[in-house]
Amino acid sequence: MKRIIPTGLLVAALVCLFMVTGQAGTYVSSNGKFYITYPDYWYQIDYNTVDYYLAETNANEDAFGYEAVFADSNAMPFYEGAFLILSVDTAGVLDERQVDSVVDEYREVFGSADPHGLRSSPPSYNVATKVLTVQSDVTDGDRVLQKNLLAVKFYEHGMATFYFYCTDSLYEQSRQVFDDIVASFSTENLEAVVPQEKLKLADIDADGDSSATGLAILIIVVATAVLAAVGIIVSKRKRS
What we know:
By secondary structure, the protein is of the alpha+beta class. It contains 4 helices and 12 strands; from the N terminus they run E-E-E-E-H-E-E-H-E-E-E-E-E-H-E-H. The chain has helices spanning 47-56, 96-109, 171-183, 210-239; strands at 13-20, 25-29, 34-38, 42-45, 68-72, 83-89, 118-120, 124-126, 131-140, 143-155, 158-167, 197-204. The strands form 2 sheets. Strands 1, 4, 5, 6, 7, 8, 9, 10, 11 and 12 form a 10-stranded antiparallel beta sheet that branches. Strands 2-3 form a two-stranded antiparallel sheet.
């Protein structure tokens, strides 16, 4: 269900952001029954902020099905740096045959040029960690605007999907952060995990300049295309 976006966000707004102070942050998914950690300079973005951003860029309904969004605090607005969209499918554990089927579906969808300007590498699946990854470039002609890394973690309750987005110039230094967040995935001792976060306010420019708005729209168009493709794969798996 689409979250209700509060009115009054048509001017520069003060937005609640969860900011880590002094140690890594922890996000616990009560829906997916797992948790992840992220570095001290990343933060979880308030849901109203994300929904407002999606609405302003005319994202379709699929984009609103996220679990949580995280970003590097060195960029403001968040989509101009490195950020992560997390979604969860709790359809249950998959056996080896079903996992192979999902991997094959990803190989059919990704690995070639996309009409939305998304150029992807063939998916890679690590049997030991049960993680599937796909790296993509958001392109404008021959120019790479942004790099994406899609990671799907198969586990006992279903699949956790990580959609990483980063400007081309920051990708190499951000890739290790992306990998570490996925590697931190755990379902052990959930009750003992307490997020070490404090509430902080940040200024968001609701108007923004035209170039930033254009980039935001492009990012959301591509992100929605990726989410839709993954949705098709999940739907096929559920029907089978």
